[in-house]
Protein 1
Amino acid sequence: MIKKIYFTSIFILIVGILALLPVTAYGHGGGRPQLFREPAGPYLVSVWSLPDPMTVGEVNLVVLVTGNQEGAVDNYILDADIDISLRRGLSTVETRATHDQATNNLFYESYFDIDRAGTWNVNVTVNGPAGEGTASFSMDVLDEGGTSINWLFYGGIGVGILVIVGLIWQFMTEEEEV
Amino acid sequence: MDPVTIRLLTSWELRPVLFLLLLFMATLYTLGWQRLRVQRRSRRLARPWRLIFYWLAIIFIIVSLMSPIEVLSGDLFFMHMIQHLLLTMFAAPLLMLANPLPFLLWGLPRKLRRRFGRILSRLLNQKSRFRQAARSSTTPAIVWLIMLSTLWIWHDTRMYELALRREWAHDLEHFTFFASAALYWWLVTGAGPRIHKNMSYFGKVGYLLAGIPSTFILGVAIAFAASPLYPYYETRPRLLNLTVMDDQTIGGIIMWVAGSMMYVLAAVAVIGVWMVEQERRQQLRMRGQRPETRDERPEMEDL
């Protein structure tokens, strides 16, 4: 009986947490800034990278291109081709950032895999109505399997659930004894 | 419409899992509402406005977490403030006004409902220690303090920066904002489970007005800050051509004016309901009928 109550309590709590989950879900950071308004021919290029810190596996580069006019109102370049190439020794990754992959449609984004840790040199080439320009930066990629703080967060929630369930169980069994 | 605006308005972050979960909860509530609506005893509980409020709350959650407001909240401080306002001042009170517990319970299959009902009645009966513990840890003063400290702690520069840079912290921020707001509005609306004494109308108005300093003081402090409080935004593109300081000032004003205004509006609404209630009671007395007390209301309303 107590076992039944215990598991039902867990179920109730999970449903309760799921009910609140919609509000907690998916906060998104903007990523690590790699370039910020860096001149690239007739453009200014900004690039952010995710995850932060960057690890081997799937990575995400977010690119914003504006016109290179000093003091002018930002002029978003929305119809450019953005080619990204990454090099580390003999390893090369070529990818294209597009609006289709972006959450914010003013940006261009690209998701791709990096299979080796180390320092990668990245070239971002913008080919748009005003011509072509390239901006570069290097970024460090760490080995997979580093400590992920998300596990701490979700582990904390798990422990919290267990504590609450344990308390509820205690309250219930005490009342049964009464 | 210019292409930039079109791009911004079409920047939705659709999340199938979240959307399905919200749809599931809304369906469960609607089913429960229908079941209670057809029963004579609980007809008064299942009023149409509750269903409308629940769905509105769901819509506000969707808008704040999936629309361009969410997409832009990472780049613009004032959008982040609007997002928090929608969650805490619109979604949370509407959800509590909809009194979700009995409806969600009645949306469940009979066997499951009875099982949960038994557990809830065991946990929440008058003599239960759990009820006593929950009641003493959620007094209006404690809940007010929880809400205020949650809001202020997360707007500390380091905590806010952490939330913007780390996804888990951002999740935690939204969770604590919503949970503390839900607690606050739970006491005001008297939604189930009803473990507290029913707050008087006068008490509700006072409690709502006591909420104002939480957003007022913080909003003013942010709006009149002499320098950027959150360096993160200096590394973000200046969308809508707002400088970091303009963005911060607008965000502060939103929290100060709109945030405080919501408490005032809620207090005015409570006064309105209070007056209508007084008039109804007076009419009943004039007809020689005795107005019912809270204890005489249908049992389900107290769940």
Protein 2
Amino acid sequence: MKNTLLSLNEATRTVNSGSNKVTLLDNINLNVEVGEFISLMGPSGSGKSTLLNCIGMLDHFTDGGYTFLGEPVHSMKEKNRSKLYKEYIGFVFQAYHLIDELTVYENIETPLLYKSVKSSERKAMVADMLDRFNIVGKKDLFPIQLSGGQQQLVGIARALIGKPKLILADEPTGNLNSKQSEEIMELFAQLNKEGVTIIQATHSESNAAYGSRIINLLDGKIV
Amino acid sequence: MIKNNIKLAWRSIRKNRLFSMISLTGLTLGLLACISVVSVVLDDFSYDSQWSRKDDIHRLLTNVDMGNDVSNKMSASWAGLRPALMDNFPEVEAVTNIYTVDRHIKKNIEDTDVIDLKALETDSLIWDLFDFKVISGNPKQFIHGKSNLVLTKTLKDKLFPDEDVIGKIVFSIPSFGSEPTPFLITGIIENIPSNTHLRAEALIIEKGRLEALYKEQYGSFTRNYVLFKTGTDVNKFSEKLNTWYTDFVGGETKYSYEFQPISDTYLNSEFDNEIDIKGNRSTDYILLGVAILVLFIACVNFVNLSVARSLTRIKEVGVRKVIGADRKQIITQFLVESLMYFVIASLIALPTFYLIIPFIEQFIGHALQVSLLSSLEYLSLGFVAVFIVAVITGTYPAFLISGFKPMNSLKGLINKNEIYGQQFIQKGLVVVQFSIAIIVLVSVFIVKSQLDFINNKDLGYDEENLLAINPTSWDGKGESFHKEITNIPGVTSASLANWRPTFGSGGMLKSIDNPNNLGSKMQVWFIAGDVHLPKTLGVKLISGRLFDEKLITDAPQSKPIAFNNEEKKVNTQPSILTEFTANALQVTKMNTTIPELETNPIGIVKSFHTQSLRYDFKPVVIVGESNPDYSSMLIRVKEGTSSEVTAKINKIWKQMFPNKYLAMNWVDDLVEKQYLEEDRLQSFFSFFSMLSLLLSAIGVFGLVAQSTEQRIKEIGVRKVLGASVKSIVVLFSKDYVKLVAIAIVIALPIAWFATSKWLQDFAYRISVEWVVLLLAASIVLVIALTTVVVQSIRAAIRNPIKSLRTE
């Protein structure tokens, strides 16, 4: 039985650059089912990141329809939209984007703080996550003391702690060596098996191969 | 969440050492300044509010109608009003007389040591008005026969540390009378709080004057303090009293009365030249204003640096938003951080304030009875105030930084308009900051030049090397004392006179018709002295002659002027006029009698300043009088002989007046004492001006440090492309020079206006010169420029390879 997580209907994103209107995403039609692992591929500037950001509701389509879990995102108010993405979406970045001032433990804990999760519950959840990613020993270190791969692990742990339905990963292994990349992709595959829907943007064919579906983008269009 | 925010704030404070140091130094100094000044002002406003019957105690003031709609207010009133008030008005519970006096005490009559003390000379009814706490003895019970002396605890411990003093007799050595007065010690009381205009170390309780109120409107004046029955409408009562008094004297009087609440006396006694313990409301406001400005400068530093630094934290905020923070949570985080700075600054400032209290007390000249620390109420109000300031200060940076779109902040893309607004505000604040620094600096210069001007102004007499003995009774030995004094080598001349410089315009006052303005009255002051007075004072003769020793008529022995109309006799005593007086009276010819003044001018001298330069000249007439019963003495001393001369005077005094206290001052000290308030204001301004300049400078230092840090890559690229160090320094300095220039344009007119206004209090004053304004402006410019240049040179000489590699 198939379950639609989100669907895009002629979704378009244009920006004004000077007097020119530039189309970043051009009439995208896309259905994402629960449990899919999608790899977005395409050269630089093809619109991968913009599509991820729009799906992640950090950015918005300028035209067309976007439905997430049956809710019409395109007609929602900003406030409800951010409520929606905070509830259901986790982000993983190429540059990890950990908070330098916080320890590993605190970085993972922060999303729970913003959700006002109770202290005892928080502790249990963070401990689980540290355990699962095998980074218990590093919980009091600061990001700068970790390798890139370890930082990305923390980034993923932080994205997962809120129990999202969808993970959006923008070049998650772009800054990593091949061994670390492999580990991260294995982890994604594992998470996907456990039921998390994943959309990743990547340049790498081998990374894309971990996905269940590959979508190629060129000049803002699905090809 | 809040715990987490505090932890974060603490880490952030520790991480950015330079920023934190600048912010904390500024905030601590600003808060310290405010705490100190607020405490001093609170103390000033707390005067005489500690008495349990404070609402019922009033000082009786007299208004004397001088004609021309001019009236003189005095803190004294008829002694006879005391029985009149107590006998005729049921609203009045008690009336007492209180004078603050200096007394000189010997423990035993044969002692040579004299102890000076400040006391309240009063009567038994004082116990009804003020709640002095009795520690031992039964001082409320007046013991007849002698003056009763009640010591405060500190004075008792100082004079008689381990003695039971109740019942002991000590002796007061008068400076006026001739015989020592025995004082019977009847009790010890707790110290009188220092925040009363009746500040003193002892009470001298007399039997109390019993003078009746005379219908003929004469008698003696005293200071009456009235205790009303609780609930009396004092305004209505003063009307009632005035009506009653007018009736009593038969319908016509120039005297009218008003009641001043005791808690108002300290700050509203500017009319009263005879009391020393009085405050000045406008000085308080000036102090408060300047302290608030300093705190404001510190807050501006904080805002500017926070904003500048927040640009480096945009990424962090973007991440936080993406992982689920909403704007409110981000704002809270940054507000908590701002609050932390204020909390830390307060925690440093409060104990520091506690430590510097002695210095503040030294500065204001008395103990600080009330301060921000003295009640929990004040302290919590203080904290609430700091909290409000912190929230106001922290709000702008917090709102600014939380407003960026998360995607843009992650990419380091910031909307140009947002940055523009931020820079505009930042620059505006820098301008305000420097404007304040310039205004305060100009004030320092003006106050200082005015004081220099006052101190160097030719007073019309020579105030240097001139001694003045306080008025005393000569017991017929005035002439012989005078002779002994003039025989001292080093004394060039001496004069018995009823006036001393700075003590009013003369010894007596006469109201005559104003020849320049018919129908109006003019007050003419009389100084009576012996023939040596003009020479001793060192006044300059313009025309006519001074008194002649050989002419017995120049200084008759009799009472010089007949004041009482009934005693009027044709008495054309010779007199010397000041130039100002001669002009006012339209006197051109010598030896022509002025009938109204019953005098015959023989000479005109250059006008001299009898009072503080705050006041203009007054018409003054000098008349001769030899061998007075009571008078002061002025002694002209040769330069460099002062110590021998004063020693000799003391010796002669002891021989001739063994039981009398010699109260003597140098006239230049007396002159200086008139400007104590201005002196204090000057030191205050100098200190706060340095503080505001320092804070403004470190603020700019922080801003430049921040912007060179942010633009380090740009500097590197520019250098690689061939930019010189100079061009980079110019690049960074240009903006700040512009800002200081704008600040100068804004500040100078304000400074000019404010200082001119202040100067208007002085009849003799400097004008605000452009040079002073420009000097202040250039000092500020130089300080700002130095700060910017030093900081930008540091950035510019760094190796570009290094700065480019840091990316």
Protein 3
Amino acid sequence: MPVEVIMPKVDMDMATGKIMSWHVGEGEAVTKGAPLFDIETDKAAMEVEAPDNGILHHTAPEGTEVPIGQAVAWLYAEGEAVGEQPAPFAAAKTPEPAPSDEPVVADISHPEPDVSALPQFAPAPIAADRARATPKARAMARKSGLDINALHGSGPLGRIQAEDVLSALQTVPAMVAAPGFSAENGPLSVTRSRGGTGTPVVLIHGFASDAQSWAPLEAHLKHRPLVRIELPGHGKSPKLRIADFAALSRTLRQCFDSLGLENAHLVGHSLGGALSLALADTRPRSVASLTLIAPAGLGPEINGAALSGLLKATRAESLGPWLKALVADETLITDAYVRLAMSGRSEPNLRHAQSALADVLFPDGVQAFDLRAALDRIERPTRIIWGKQDGIIPWKHAFGAPGHVALHLFKGIGHMPQIECADAVGSILKSAV
Amino acid sequence: MNTHATIEAPTRELSYAEAIREAMDIALGSDEAVVLMGEDIGVYGGAFQVTGDLVHKYGEDRVIDTPISELGGAGVAVGAALTGLKPIFEFQFSDFAALAMEQIVNQAAKVRYMLGGAVSVPVVMRFPAGSGTGAAAQHSQSIEAWLGHVPGLKVVQPSTPEDVKGMLLAALEDPDPVMIFEHKILYKMKGHVPEGYYTTPIGKAAIRREGKDLSIVATSLMVHKALAAAETLAGEGIDAEVIDLRTVRPMDRETVLNSVRKTGRLVCVYEGVKTLGIGAEISAMVAESDAFDFLDAPIIRLGGAECPIPYNPELEKAAVPQIPDILEAARAIAKGHV
């Protein structure tokens, strides 16, 4: 008898999960415990392991939404005859037929056969997240880390062809390398340090910030290769339209996958912390350790006034007060620093892109995503670093962390420990990575 | 196009049939083991006058008329090959291979394998093939894919006078059975043919025209139709690469895959019935390889219609790919309309 592979329940209030991708093809052998498929729920994306050894058959198509506990595929023993799919896939969104007390009577007044039951010869429907694309377009998108499903297809039936990928790539602004870093082409701006050996450290900045914010910390991490990713609408990354946290997380994951790192330490600040956590939840095998600095995603509260103030500011005078809200010691925010920061935010499109992102991530000044369940699941060494005068996200969110997560809480430090006490944060990281 | 050193030899214009005759003349003159066999190849000179007057030069012991039995004649040729001769056996029409399948498929192709490599069957069989002569359903088929399906056989389809001479001489050097499909329409085609002895490798396709927008892989007579289409396409700004497959088995993977990697678009043109034919094999070869990742449009196959070749001349033309069909397919695929 084939073994059923079921949609697991990974969140308390999860009803359905969407199959994002299969790691193993139809008819291929799988080993118990090996990654089998990726799922996405309302809140998180994660990898599901094979429940047993066997040969994979009757896989539910990628993109389908399946209720928890329902079969998504079957595993057959080596040599076992593969027949019909043992049971149909349960559709997540088909309403139950209304119960009827009427007796079932054959209707003989309409002898014509019901043609609606016959197969309809129309172009095969394409799932929303499974674009029609040529192999060449797919290969090009894969290589450059673009999400093929986000592209416009100019070919017949809306097929995405190579030239569509080329034109999408041309709209991504040219990457400019910071001193000591080399830029890479891709949907997100990625810069790598030229020195260091061993497991690389991936740095993911926070909302309304950019890769430059890691500069004070980098002096402490020179022994490792450093990889800095800039979020969409930030720094030199393109201003992609992002629907929600899951989409942002997916974009980052695709970028991370395209880096080809077998293993990496993740360090994320604020929104970057939440994204690091989501990434570690989905790619646990690629993550050596996780460091979350004043992370988002561990509770609903956030300083909405400071966020909108930062986003609205068009001059140094209006930006300064909100920058000071980021830190405990306001003397760190000099006039020169404010002017420099404002020059980095002078482009209106950048502010618009960040405002659009804030609208979906922090509507009405609330964090619209919750990663506490993901933090509970983390098995990799994880530490949270927080300043106890954080004026943006309440540092007490750290208390929701499970026991195996280390907490480093700094007195007299605000939302930017990596800048405010770079030496202390640096030495914690240095011993960890 | 030839890789052999004698490419430098002086050339002159010969017809395809004359080039075959010259190859057989060279072989008969230089190797006593070579004999010609077939129906009416002696005094009559062969159904298509390919053998010509060779019987007068080499005598009836070496240019042998066989009785009207393809099974018997092929059996004698296979037996002669097993005992040390190198027979070149001519069928009057490739369609008649159906009568000799036992000898070709069950004997010639398999004896080496079944006797552990102790023997080989150095027989060459020549098959006048294809439509366009008004000879109807039983004298017009293109059955190279039938034989291409049999391990132990080599199957070639030279498309030029130079190649047919070189491939016939290469076939005689091959220790195993080689099947040569000669399109009847090509017999009168003229082309430059180097003098003297040279061989054209079996298993190597030729790029007849380089291009960057799409790859047309064609066989035999279709190569010439594809080249004519490519000239018209060039005037429209479509740059087609034309590959002459030359050998059906073993197929030249790399030349085809490299071309697809370059152009991203593939049209296969062959005269045999489309379904389960040479184009299916080429398409699958691409789909199974890394060249798949370079495809930027669906593959198009142009093959023979799913019917016997009709006698009516207009229907006969309609049953196999023609230049307008190639043009239509190439335009559609190059402009992203399919």
